[in-house]
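Changelog note: in this version the structure field was regenerated for every chain. One regenerated record is shown below for reference.
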Amino acid sequence: MNRLRTEIPEEELESELIVEEKTVKEIPDNFLTKFLTKGFITTDDATRALPFVLFLAFLGMIYIGNRHLAEKNIRDIEKITKEVHELGWEYKITKADLAYKSTLTEVAKRVDTLGIRESIQPAQKITMKEDAAQ
């Protein structure tokens, strides 16, 4: 096995140098590839239009995000409106309760526990004569 290279016959060299050829995959024959290669839009046109398509996609994402933000704001407004209505009802209930508790009979019932009673005699007007004041 230890021979010079010149002694090796050419047939042995060719058998050692067999190179495997890879098969080139063909582009699938579907609508998109036909449209881009054989249609009115070429690959170069599609490549040139790519920035515009990306810009449109960006605008679409902004539009979707804006829509979500608007819907969130509408939900917040409805929630706050409902809370304002509930607080308005609570105010009206409290005002009516205060008007009821400040009536003469209710005040008399409450102060009766403290030992204070309603006067039976009518109120009297106190007047002073000017002569007596000096």
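Spot check on this record: The radius of gyration is 50 Å. The chain has five helices and no strands.
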